[in-house]
Fold:
Amino acid sequence: DGISSEDVVRLTELNARRWCARFSDPVMSQLAMGPFLAEVRALLSATVESSPASSTRRRGAGGVHVVCGHDTTLVPLLCAMGAFEGGWPRYAANLTIELAL
Structure:
């Protein structure tokens, strides 16, 4: 009979829980996503420094930054940010971080 769509949903949920369990430990989460989050922080800091109100405005900083990844990147990232809600990301899911100055 094969695998039913209900089986696929259960397996997907199990996989998501396993990934989150792996990255729910703060140390593991920091090791896995720390370098990436440091890069995001640097981009956000550069945007703040390049804002018209900043006295340290740097040419070429700021604007729009697009960073691409996969679902296997998004799950640990959400876990590291404490925002993972337990379901595996849908196809073409995205995370948008907006900085309003």
About this structure: The chain is about 50% helix and 0% strand.
